[in-house]
Amino acid sequence: MHDGSLLTAERIGPALPEPGPVPVAGRTPRPVVVAVLAGAGLTVAAAVLAAVRMLPAGSRAGAWRYRYVGWFSWEMLLPFAGGLAAVLALLWLTHRLGPRRERLVVGMWLAAAVPLQLVVRAADEVSLGAVVASDRANSFYTPSLRFTAWDYLTRFQDIIHELPQHARSNMPGKTLFYHLLGTLTTNPAALGVAITAVSSLAALLVYLLVREVLDDRRVALFALILCLLVPGRLYFLPILNAVSPVPILLSLWLFTRYLRHARWGWAAGLGASLYLVFFFEPLPLVMGLTFAALAALALYRRRLDRFGLLKLVSLTLAAFAAAYLGMRLVFGYDLFVNLAWVLADAHDFNDRALRPYDVWVVRNLGDFALCAGIAATVLVGYAAWDAVRRGVARPIAALTLSGLAVLAFLDLVGVNRGETTRLWIFLAVFLMIPVAWVCARSPRVWPFAVVTAASLLQVAATTPMIAFIRP
């Protein structure tokens, strides 16, 4: 497998040899076999626990649990069978088309993305439209009908106390996203499908990001497919947490584009996209640790010098400031005043809801595994071990370890307590990159097929059993 990238410029003299490609006829490395089979075995065990209503989903001591609402029947596994058959058929077509038709292959997977996700979550008794229209589950659709986009922005501080709970405790970008979709349709069922499609753009951005950083088509395609099947995304569609990865991944891709082509347009786009992250969902900004890791690696490998870094930061801040001032002058909307209110409300909510830090600092990690997929979590652990063993000054090591640093930071800070399965979606999507990388270390497709099947099984076994989202 190729490990080169835009960050492989020599630092001083000849570079240390990078690991070469895995021979086409080579064997799957034993550690990969162990990790894949361990992840699959743990997934089967979790599916059995869910079937007997014993899989933990939340914490009673932490004052939040997802309740069990169903009883197991074999019919619940039909979406698993249908989804797996579709994935295997698409993998066969991918093989037949070959590496030279890269764009066609990517287009094929993206075209299949929405139907595939709807099939996999078909056992959920709650429709997409019912979730969209529910103030309890969603809270953003109703305000988009009640207020115009202009009123919502210009009078946001005045009307905030009239809004449903989730709309009140979030940035206004989510409601304005419904205003944007409302130019096409206001039908809740159609909006649910549209949100699924927009959420799927995260997979495309992950693909583009991997192509920039690792320059490996196979890893990129595996990551794209895995992103579409992240259990947490499928549990909570069409809740807008499933869309949250899109703005931050757009920012990260623009950042890597600047590292390859140091043009002011990429930096300006980065600044504007970071404003969008603040405006839509600020939690993923903790992935600034990944930006820092890639910048440090680029400096170390002489892909970027100090002047280039200063130029990037200056142009990004200028674009961000232009977006901030433009919104302030045109709409009277102050991003930072709104952000301070949201952060204070989140802190007060944890106190009001009696959600203790010491419980959730442990329970959050279990919720992350449930969101990312149990098999995928095992492979992320293997990728981290490999990164430490073989050296951290490699692109895949920077991506893996920085992603885990984000996980550790958010867990230890303790802002997220309860309902965290959906809050981890943005990070789970990103960490499909090291999962794909581990799978691609094998010249054969079976490790990837097993991990994908495990994710599908987890979704099929838990979605109809556990009330992750109810109107």
Automatic annotation (TrEMBL):
Keyword GTP-binding: no
Transmembrane segments: 32-52, 72-92, 104-123, 189-210, 222-255, 275-300, 312-331, 365-384, 396-415, 421-439, 446-469
UniProt superkingdom: Bacteria
Keywords associated with the record: Membrane, Transmembrane, Transmembrane helix
The protein, known as: Dolichyl-phosphate-mannose-protein mannosyltransferase
